[in-house]
């Protein structure tokens, strides 16, 4: 029987443990605070930011939301980041992506204080991850590692194939899978839109991570019998539902589940872990900045 992995359940477990870490900080007189910054009027981005704020509320983290007009000059965003960097009561800063075209993403990510960079996208944090000395693991790949661990899926010696090479998922995911240690030691292949004969590569995967952002591009025919399939893609497609859309993963779930031993659904798979690991990084950031020793799950 194919196991359908319940991401909400795994995320709930992590959040329950994080609540105790937040308590430790509060008992020491430190109130964890996460600033989210949205410079977009995209509906999906608004939804994600409000989910992050709701997760903060649930854990006792003070979530402060900041909005910047998407038509404002980039300097307005930079000044806001500078102010948040300088505020000792703010421990984590998340600038929601994507940003408007006139705002250079690289300049934004490089401007956030690396000790407050809960996304782990600052070049210093990327470098530390690659060097095997991660400070903040990027939330989605970290969440995928937690799913594999929770499901007892060994990565050591396995063939892992990541489809997608984005800075926020594909590249850090591949890096984590190839690192020495728990959740790593996999033989890792990174595929992308220009990969020749993609199917030949994905079919070799014991662990397949689909993170290309192309709805249903991976079907059962591309999956090895008995594989673990992790679907990171979440695309909104117009549909005749209450919200006017539905969420579609990068994996064609119906055909994939015929081949996979374990598979994550969309929604209810990786998405909830992304938010849980953002909370994890926010607690970690608070510990680093306040010099309070906190146990992390
Ligand atoms: N600086 C930055 N950091 C991010 O971490 C970041 C970002 N920008 N931009 C956009 C992506 C996307 N992302 C998601 C988080 C949670 C769900 C999630 O929880 N999804 C639910 C369903 C959500 C729904 O109903 O729409 C699920 O899969 O079950 C999805 C996507 C974080 N991102």
Automatic annotation (TrEMBL):
GO terms for biological process: L-histidine biosynthetic process; methionine biosynthetic process; purine nucleotide biosynthetic process; tetrahydrofolate interconversion. It catalyses: (6R)-5,10-methylene-5,6,7,8-tetrahydrofolate + NADP(+) = (6R)-5,10-methenyltetrahydrofolate + NADPH; (6R)-5,10-methenyltetrahydrofolate + H2O = (6R)-10-formyltetrahydrofolate + H(+). SUPFAM superfamilies: Aminoacid dehydrogenase-like, N-terminal domain, NAD(P)-binding Rossmann-fold domains. It holds the Pfam family THF_DHG_CYH. Residues 138-286 form the Tetrahydrofolate dehydrogenase/cyclohydrolase NAD(P)-binding domain. NADP(+) binds at residues 164-166, 234. Keywords: Amino-acid biosynthesis, Histidine biosynthesis, Hydrolase, Methionine biosynthesis, Multifunctional enzyme, NADP, One-carbon metabolism, Oxidoreductase, Purine biosynthesis. Pathway: One-carbon metabolism; tetrahydrofolate interconversion. CDD domains: NAD_bind_m-THF_DH_Cyclohyd. One of its GO terms (molecular function) is methylenetetrahydrofolate dehydrogenase (NADP+) activity. Its EC number is 1.5.1.5, 3.5.4.9. InterPro entries: Aminoacid_DH-like_N_sf, NAD(P)-bd_dom_sf, THF_DH/CycHdrlase, THF_DH/CycHdrlase_cat_dom, THF_DH/CycHdrlase_NAD-bd_dom. Residues 5-119 form the Tetrahydrofolate dehydrogenase/cyclohydrolase catalytic domain. Gene3D superfamilies: Leucine Dehydrogenase, chain A, domain 1, NAD(P)-binding Rossmann-like Domain. Catalyzes the oxidation of 5,10-methylenetetrahydrofolate to 5,10-methenyltetrahydrofolate and then the hydrolysis of 5,10-methenyltetrahydrofolate to 10-formyltetrahydrofolate. Homodimer. Belongs to the tetrahydrofolate dehydrogenase/cyclohydrolase family. This is Bifunctional protein FolD. It comes from Halorubrum trueperi. The gene is folD.
